[in-house]
Amino acid sequence: MSILPGLNLSAPPTLLPQAQTARTQDLPAGSEYRFEVSFRSSLRIKLLTGTAELFGTELAASSHQAYTFSGTKAAIYTWDGCTLELTGETESEYVAEETTMSSYANVHFALERLRDGALAAGGLGPRVLIVGPENAGKTSLAKMLTAYANKAERLPVVVNLDPRQGMLAPPGAFSAATFAGILDVEEGWGSSSISGPTAIPAKVPLVYHYGLPSPEDNGGIFKPLVTRMALAVTSRLEEDPDARVSGCIIDTAGAISQGKGGQYENIQHIVSEFSVNVLLVLGSERLYSDLSRRFSAKNGEDAVAVVKLDKSGGCVDRDESYMRQLRQSQVRSYFFGRPGSTLSPHTHMLDHNQLNIFRIDQASGHPTLSFLPGDDEDSAHASTSLYEQVQPSMMMQNCLLAVTSADPYESEENIRDASIMGYVYVADVDEAKKKVRILAPVSGRVPPKALVWGSWPEDVADLVG
Ligand SMILES: Nc1ncnc2c1ncn2[C@@H]1O[C@H](COP(=O)(O)OP(=O)(O)OP(=O)(O)O)[C@@H](O)[C@H]1O
């Protein structure tokens, strides 16, 4: 054991760099290598022989190209068999021969037939909605269908309506993007803002800010945002002939599949706003039966094909502490990038009165009836305020603010419906001096727009030293 100079203490053995030896893993055809890597360690994977893919995106067939994973739970599948070289530590790893890949691939081929039909008839391609409980594999299926669609030279618009995890944006955001190139194997969807060279082209998503953990938390914001997003996506599908034929793929949060009081109001809303015609139900018999009963009555142009799919045995229940770390790493990489594609954010010192901050009123989606003296039944009113304008305070420290494209004097509805230009992070608030230190992804002043502050994502400490 080494001695730390001057301290006469033994250094813990873990401080010493460990030489990691590479091992090989053979995968028979039709099997997958499932692995979990913590945020503190990393696993390097090289494809030595054969072909393999991670949630539909092919690994480069070159022993020089290595993929590094950290804080990842995923699987590498092979259709024809392959050999992988693995270097690093995993929390768990095994090879599974029973997978759901064939049924997921069949969904892709069925969607391709719909796309071919749309091309021939000059119509719209499939509008696909994926629902199911949490951790049922919805996001993984969305990635897979997107990657396969890309391989078939389609350009689907992918929409994320799950605030628990961001797509090309921090958590709390709803986003939509057209995926033309390959997806990023290491990161999942890829990056939206890259200032350095990258092998994967950067995507420019359309973003709206929800700012709460669950879609069920505030229908007064969730539903109108779904409507806005649907309008934007529909007009994209109408304008771009390639996207039109390819259609869209919508990923959702598990919470909307719980069906409060058997209602599934939010699913119903998404289906009607996006004119969904393919509803993929993952991992829940009950949800499938409820939804097929609800949508079976529709026919003609409104018909919705409800398809039941099994949950993959590889899906991992991610606990809250993992999800929190995942969100924090998404926020961190929004500002600082990732290894190999680092970004240079800027800090700004601003006066309190340079910021127009609107806090989301969490209760605004639940109308509160007033039964104060003098209110008869008819005059009982619902609280409709969406936001409260607030001054910077210590409570905002370490939080994200969404920079909307709305001016601060516009109506609450306009602020809610405005697309997001970007996010800033509140590093410090000095209430006495009325100063705020802000971290922004770009240099130049923070635009004098309405900034929205929600309770989600949760605060991220120590982003700025
Ligand atoms: N076949 C598989 N093998 C190993 N891990 C998998 C597999 N499929 C999915 N996972 C992992 O399981 C976890 C849950 O999957 P996923 O994020 O796709 O579920 P979800 O339904 O979108 O969850 P949520 O609703 O909570 O966002 C993820 O970490 C994902 O990478």
Give the rounded overall mean pLDDT: 86
Straight-line distance between termini: 33 Å
User: What small molecules does this complex bind?
Assistant: adenosine-5'-triphosphate
What are the segments in which pLDDT stays under 50 over at least 5 consecutive residues? 1-18, 194-198, 366-382
Strand content: 25-35%
Q: What's the gyration radius in Å?
A: 24 Å
* Strand order within the widest beta sheet: 15-14-13-16-12-17-18
For the secondary structure, the number of strands is 27
Structural class: alpha+beta
Give the overall silhouette. globular
- What proportion of the residues is helical, as a percent range? 10-25%
Number of helices: 8
Largest sheet: 7 strands, mixed
Question: Describe it for me?
Answer:
- The longest helix is centred in the N-terminal third of the chain and has 21 residues, at 101-121.
- Mean pLDDT is 86; it is low at 1-18, 194-198 and 366-382.
- The chain is α+β, with helices and mostly antiparallel strands and 465 residues long.
- The protein is built from eight helices and 27 strands.
- Helix 1 packs across helix 2 (138-151).
- It binds adenosine-5'-triphosphate (ATP).
